[in-house]
From TrEMBL:
Entry EC number(s): 6.2.1.13
Domain CoA-binding: 4-98
Entry-linked Pfam families: CoA_binding_2, Ligase_CoA_2, Succ_CoA_lig
Designated name of the protein: acetate--CoA ligase (ADP-forming)
Keyword Nucleotide-binding: yes
Keyword Aminoacyl-tRNA synthetase appears in the UniProt entry: no
Reaction equations catalysed: acetate + ATP + CoA = acetyl-CoA + ADP + phosphate
UniProt keyword annotations, A-Z: ATP-binding, Ligase, Nucleotide-binding
GO MF annotations in UniProt: acetate-CoA ligase (ADP-forming) activity; ATP binding
Origin species: Thermococcus cleftensis (strain DSM 27260 / KACC 17922 / CL1)
UniProt-listed SMART domains: CoA_binding (SM00881)
Signal peptide range: none
InterPro entries: Acyl-CoA_Synth/Transferase (IPR051538), CoA-bd (IPR003781), Ligase_CoA_dom (IPR043938), NAD(P)-bd_dom_sf (IPR036291), Succ_CoA_lig_flav_dom (IPR032875), Succinyl-CoA_synth-like (IPR016102)
Length: 438
């Protein structure tokens, strides 16, 4: 499926009036820096100006391209696929009006026409795709920065919101695909593809339901054996399942069956969007982490909250060795607690944090570290961020800098060095919990 996510040429079909879906997709492709050939197609012809470029609109596609993005009325899509089938490898059908509104016959016809020409389909009723490392933004959703997360979403709107939230959370993406009705390619195909994609470190999947449970389980096992797969399942309740059926025309089925399948395949299930991104952030930094955690904090309360959450998640507070305790005592003020959690007290500075992280990291009883910083107004958050960055530690270090204006610059500095911040002690603890599952 490289022709979808790393295309060298693309044709866009639809209206190129400003504000129309095809125009917005075309604008995203151009503004996103796509370096391949771009062919806008509309029977009326003419030109379109987008992002400082003037493109000739072809009246019909008359040259081969890797992928077609189609945003025309549903009723004419099958005929269009028949016409352009010999010239394309894949089609992304944005158009709605198929099985999701009871028009199964038109959807079947679309698939039959595509198969006749050996064309693979994404959609219909979808929001498009991104191949971020190929600088290909074939969707009307917000563009994202390059990174390691592939987001597969049955819902286009959820996908769009997730991309925007990912930007806010400092997530880097390798790809995005909204697959809508999954008339041809579905979640199983994308799981298998991204499991082998060298730019993808982790896969996030939003699903409401699947049509072929056996195939899905096989694909999920395959992908989870190679990369972390994070799943957010909607349609768990009876009302949610009914809503899912009306949304994409898929059967949500019994949630208990899904939950058992996720567990059996080794996937990581999360409960809400916030958790999906926290898990993604964790796996963008590390592939795994052990269960024995050292907590380093400058505030007792958050340290206690982190400890509570870690133990509820089945992780252990690491028992520091006598040598570690003695080394910490040798330079920390007497008011500091050198047991786990290690409380550096409010005036902890760069040196106190850096040395403590390095000493705890050397302890063979410690698998990973959770570093909490609630900076007082007289110590800049960036100073502590620099200590985390400079500390010599080869074990997973998850950080919780809080909160707001006091830590903004520190969090920015951390992110510039690939260290993701988790805004609460509990969310940082959960990140270590997910890493421990791999």
């Amino acid at each position: 499926m490289d022709f979808f996510f790393y295309p060298s040429s693309v044709a866009v079909f639809g209206s190129f009036k400003e504000g129309a879906i095809a125009y917005e997709i075309l604008r995203n492709i151009v503004e996103g820096g796509f370096e391949g050939r771009i062919v806008p197609v509309n029977p009326k012809g003419g030109t379109v100006e987008v992002a400082g470029r003037t493109l000739q609109i072809r009246e019909r596609l008359d040259e081969p391209v890797d992928t077609a993005i189609i945003a025309v009325p549903a009723r004419i899509v099958p005929d269009l696929i028949d016409e352009i089938g010999p010239l394309i490898k894949g089609a992304v059908v944005i158009s709605a009006g198929f099985s999701e509104v009871g028009n199964e016959g038109l959807e079947r016809e679309l698939v039959e026409r595509a198969r006749r020409h050996g064309v693979r389909l994404i959609g219909p009723n979808c929001a498009g795709i991104f191949g971020v490392h190929g600088k290909f933004f074939g969707s009307f959703e917000v563009r994202v920065k390059p990174g390691g997360l592939a987001l597969i979403s049955q819902s286009g709107a959820f996908g769009g919101a997730a991309l925007a939230m990912g930007n806010d959370e400092g997530i880097g993406f390798s790809a995005f695909v909204s697959y809508g009705n999954a008339a041809d390619l579905n979640e199983s195909d994308f799981l298998e593809y991204f499991a082998s994609d060298e730019n993808t470190k982790a896969i996030a999947l939003y699903i409401e339901g699947v049509k072929d449970g056996r195939r899905f389980l096989k694909a999920l096992r395959y992908a989870s054996a190679r990369k972390p797969v994070i799943i957010l399942k909607a349609g768990k309740s009876a009302g949610g399942a009914r809503a899912a059926a009306s949304h994409t025309g898929s059967l949500a089925g019994s949630y208990e069956i899904y939950r058992a399948a996720f567990k059996q395949a080794g996937a990581i299930e999360v409960e809400e969007m916030e958790e999906l991104f926290d898990a993604a952030k964790a796996f963008e930094m590390y592939s795994t982490a052990g269960k024995r955690v050292a907590v380093i904090t400058n505030s007792g309360g958050p340290g206690v909250l982190a400890t509570d959450k870690l133990e509820r998640l089945g992780l252990e507070m690491a028992k520091l060795s006598d040598e570690t305790v003695e080394e910490l005592r040798s330079f920390l003020p007497p008011q500091c607690s050198v047991r786990n959690p290690i409380d550096l007290i409010a005036d902890a500075d760069y040196e106190r944090y850096k040395r403590t992280i390095e000493i705890a990291c050397k302890d063979e009883n410690v698998d990973s570290l959770l570093v909490i910083c609630v900076p007082p107004i007289f110590i800049p958050g960036e100073e502590i961020a620099k200590a985390v960055i400079d500390a010599n530690c080869a074990k997973p270090v998850v950080v919780n800098f809080m909160a707001g204006e006091l830590v903004r610059e520190g969090v920015k500095l951390l992110e510039e060095h690939g260290v993701k911040n988790f805004p609460t002690p509990e969310r940082a603890a959960k990140a270590l919990g997910w890493l421990s599952l791999r």
